[in-house]
Amino acid sequence: MIIGSTAPFSQSSVLVGAARGIIEDFITFHQDQQPEGEDRPVGGEHLQILVGTCWSEIDAAWQLIQSDVNITEACLKRDKSIPRHVAIRNRAHNTLTTKLILSALDRLYGASGSSILSEKSPSGRLYQDVKAGTQHVAVNQTSGARDAGFMLLNPDMPWSYPLPS
Q: What domains sit in the chain, N to C, each tagged with a CATH number?
């Protein structure tokens, strides 16, 4: 058993919220480009696929976070600690949620050119903040995978890195 908490999920949750805001700004930007009186869908098929895919990745990250929080809270209420397999799952999912967030936003950034996500726009600064936030130890792409891999490869060794609490 490993003593743990749901605290590491709080930063991931904030990053998901910020990423949703960036996507919503991207959508609003393109809606505002639509000429008035035009009765046609906003954006071409490529843009629609891009927005839909990015939104689904951010939503998948949110679903993983919610699931992990629910499982962790149930373990903590029942046992006051979390089993090793839950700790492995949580750390691996921290890596996955970070990758989902960054993948979606990087594609959106690439598609935006120098418009909505430029460094001078509020959304561009938020994009940079989200990228910086993913380097925090609780949600870093490599630390979660490293920790999960350590526990999977060394099942008999005590957990040598304390989980963030």
A: 5-24+44-153 (1.20.140.10)
